[in-house]
Amino acid sequence: MAVAAGVAGGSAVRAQEATPTTHHADLSAFVPEGSTISVRRNATSLSPEEKATYVHAVLALKKKPSPYSPGLSVYDTFVAWHRDAFGCATMAAHMGPAFLPWHRVLLRLFELELQKIEPTATIPYWDWTVDNSTDGGIWTDDFMGGDGNPDEDWKVTSGPFNADAWEIKIFDYGDQLRTPAIVRSFGQGFNTPLPTPEEVEAVLAVPTYDAEPWNSMVHPTQSFRNALEGWRDCVDEVCDPDSGMGPICAGPHPMHNGVHLWVAGEQMLTHQVANPNDLDAEPEDLATPTNLIGTMAFNSSPNDPVFFLHHANIDRLWGLWMERHGQSYAPESGGPLGHNLNDLMWPYTHYGLDVSPAMTFDPEAMGFRYE
Hints:
Blueprint: E1 38-40, H1 48-63, H2 74-84, H3 99-117, H4 197-204, H5 224-229, E2 234-240, E3 244-249, H6 255-264, H7 306-325, E4 368-370
Parallel strand pairs: 1-4
Antiparallel strand pairs: 2-3
């Protein structure tokens, strides 16, 4: 989601370095020699064996040491990258044109790590316009597990990522509770419903990829990116030294944002929860088990493995939009750092992967396609 950020031991302001703005069109890192195209399938079409393969690979990455970040697992590295992408120095991945390219790279790198454990594993996509119930579908005990347990402060106690098997170690700066288990409360809080086919169709019909001012405040009828990302009636973006950049929005939180909130059962946005160390805070404003922030509502939302299924669907919809409107992108220049057509994207360039939005338009050139 997009409401707080951080890196262990620092602040969101210090989390990022300046991003270079040149690139070389080398996609070999995404297509290992001798590999075949990875086919991402609808999650509900997976066989029990395919679900087991995917779950095994995810659990293994949670334990495997990261080649990028000493002291972290491979899985937690992806959580940290996403969380830190809300830093004020460079809003790398949200509220701007690079929202879709940045997450496409994140998913493909994650998929390649899965395949080092299970060569046949690919990221399935969760089509929430169809698979929109609170049980069954992806929420089975052999796959993503189910809703949070109200008797356990809405912690997930079922499935392979239950509270006893899956420990969260990467937290947002502003997260005072630091709950080590996944927290879900389907459809509660803001009561944001999952997107409908008609709403998706309206988003896909927006002909322009993005427009000025290239952030959360651009009107969704002028920006496919923002229509899909889900910012509405936003009037400002503000930077907090600890939690990072965030928008001030009066409207609803549909589409991508709404799915995060639906899974989380968001009771209030993280910036609305008072700091327990604030002596002036009213008791009812403090974070308690009755107003917990669900895992998918934090900037560290990849802590819930359903994040990757959700974003695979978002990425799939971007592909459908390009089939209608062409490989169009804006801005070529003049936008936020890291969001222009040929800007290198943080943090990938700092790990030797020079990739820009311009390099991400063809999924098969990056080694994958959708069923």
